[in-house]
Amino acid sequence: MAISISAVLFLAVLAMIFTRNGGLKISHALVCLLLGFLLAGTSMAPTIHSGLTATADIVGSLRP
After folding, report:
1. What residue intervals traverse the membrane (predicted)?
2. Which of 36, 39, 28 is nearest to 10 (CA)?
3. Which pLDDT score, from 0 to 100, does residue 58 have?
């Protein structure tokens, strides 16, 4: 659960940065948001979740 919240916060911060810099329009951000909600309701959601979890585990295991 903490990984999902972290990913959501990270993506929200990126969207705000892109919006402020003019690289992402509000309409584009809304389309991305709706796509995320629609993907969460499909049968691909567990696959996406396990992919994000595996990526977070790999990144978390890296030592500087």
Report:
1. 25-45
2. 36
3. 92
Instruction: Evaluate whether 7 touches 52 at the Cβ level (below 8 Å).
Output: yes
- The average confidence (pLDDT) of the chain is 79
By residue count, the chain amounts to 64
Instruction: With beta carbons less than 8 A apart as the criterion, state whether 24 and 18 touch.
Output: yes
CA angle in degrees (0–180, nearest 5) for 60-35-17:
60
HSE toward the beta carbon, residue 7, CA cutoff 13 A: 15
Residues 6+ apart with CB under 8 A from 34: none
Exposure letters 43-64 (e unless 16+ CB within 10 A, then b): eeeeeeeeeeeeeeeeeeeeee
The label of the residue with tokens 């796509």 reads 35
The answer to whether 52 touches 8, Cβ cutoff 8 Å, is no
